[in-house]
Amino acid sequence: MSNIKNECPTQSREAMLYRSALAAAAKKAGLNAVKFEEKGIPYEEVYKASSQELARENAARFRAKMTDPYDLRQWGAQMTPELGREAFGMEVTQCTEDCFAMDMHFCPHLKGWQDLGLSDEMCAKLCDLAMAGDFAMADAMGYTLDNPLRLANGDCACRVIYRRKGTPEE
Q1: Is the dihedral of CA 39, 24, 155, 101 positive or negative?
Q2: Which domains, and CATH codes, for the chain?
Q3: What letter does residue 116 receive in the DSSP assignment?
Q4: Cβ(66)–Cβ(78) under 8 Å?
Q5: Torsion angle defined by CA atoms of residues 90, 95, 100 and 106, in that order, rounded to the nearest 10 degrees
Q6: Which tens digit of pLDDT belongs to each residue from 93-140?
Q7: What are the residue ranges of helices labelled H in the chain?
Q8: For residue 162, which of 86, 113, 94, 68 has the smallest C-alpha distance?
Q9: 41: exposed, middle or buried (C-beta count within 10 Å: 0-12, 13-18, 19+)?
Q10: Phi, psi dihedrals of residue 102, rounded to the nearest 5°
Q11: Order of strands, edge to edge, in the sheet holding 158-164?
Q12: What are phi and psi of 143, to 5 degrees?
C-alpha cells in the first residue's frame, strides 16, 4: 500500500480520459521495469535514453510553435493547455519572461504505477527515469529545470521550475 498522496479530483470527462491514457502507458513501462528487474536485466539506461529522446522531439515541436522560445511565458502556454492543467491539477506559480514554475498536484504516471501496486521506492525510481526526459527537454529548449518537490517522493506536489539559461545573444 502506497503512502504517497496522489489525488486531485476532476469533473472533466476529457481530463479523466487523458489521465487514464497516461496511466495505462505508465503501467506498461512500470510492468516492463519490474519484469526486467525480475530477470536481472538492466533497463535504467534504456528507459532514461528513451525518455530523453522523446523529450527532445517534443522540444522541437514546441519550439516550432513559439514565436520567441526564449520567452518562458510562451513555454508556459505550451506546457499548460487547459486539458493538461485539469489532468495534472496544475497550479502556475510563476510566469515571467525568464522563469516559468508550476506545481502539479496529481500525476497520472504515478497513478498507473500505484495501481500496479509498485512500492513507493519503485515509483520514485520510475519517476526519476521519466523526469530525465523533462530535464532533456528543458536543455533542448535552452532552459534549466529544477524539480525540488516530487509527488513520487511523498511531497505535496511535483514542482517544476524552468529558467532561461541565457539570452539569445549569449
Answers
A1: positive
A2: 13-164 (3.30.1380)
A3: T
A4: yes
A5: -10
A6: 999 999 999 999 999 999 999 999 999 999 999 999 999 999 999 999
A7: 13-38, 44-65, 72-79, 82-88, 108-115, 120-141
A8: 94
A9: exposed
A10: -150, 155
A11: 90-95, 99-104, 158-164, 143-149
A12: -120, 160
With pLDDT > 70 as the criterion, what percentage of the chain qualifies? 97
Confidence at residue 28, expressed as pLDDT on a 0 to 100 scale:
96
Residue 168 has a pLDDT of 55
Give the list of residues 6+ apart from residue 145 with CB closer than 8 angstroms, or none: 134, 135, 138, 139, 160, 161, 162, 163
Distances (CA, A) of 77 to 3, 18, 104, 157: 33, 19, 15, 20
Q: Which grid coordinates are listed for 149?
A: 518537490
DSSP 6: -
Determine the residue type at 158.
Answer: C
Q: Answer whether residue 2 shows pLDDT above 90.
A: no
Q: Are strands 99-104 and 158-164 parallel, antiparallel or unpaired?
A: antiparallel
Residue type, 6: N
Report, as an integer, the average pLDDT of 144-155. 97
Contact 136, 54 (CB under 8 A): no
Q: What CA–CA distance (Å, rounded) separates 100 from 139?
A: 14
Is the per-residue pLDDT at 79 higher than 80?
A: yes
